[in-house]
Design goal:
two-stranded antiparallel ribbon, globular
Length: 72
């Protein structure tokens, strides 16, 4: 995933673990590559897709039902 986004694995791990919210570049690449908008309201507990056609239908169905828990 880090290769697709153009960032290092270590950088991706810090974003994935929640130790960092990510850079503007990371947010733009997530939108470009996967159609996922990470600049959403932090109180929103769902993944927001700007373009669900950028990922497979199976992945979209699964990810659109995932909810964040607490400060995850």
């Amino acid at each position: 995933m880090s290769n697709k986004l153009g960032i290092t694995v270590q950088c991706f791990r810090t974003y994935e673990s929640g130790r960092s919210r990510g850079s503007t570049f990371f947010h733009e690449r997530m939108m470009e590559v996967f159609g996922i908008d990470l600049r959403q309201n932090p109180d929103l507990h769902k993944i927001v897709f700007s373009d669900p056609l950028k990922i497979s239908a199976v992945a979209y169905r699964h990810l659109s039902t995932v909810e964040k828990r607490g400060n995850d």
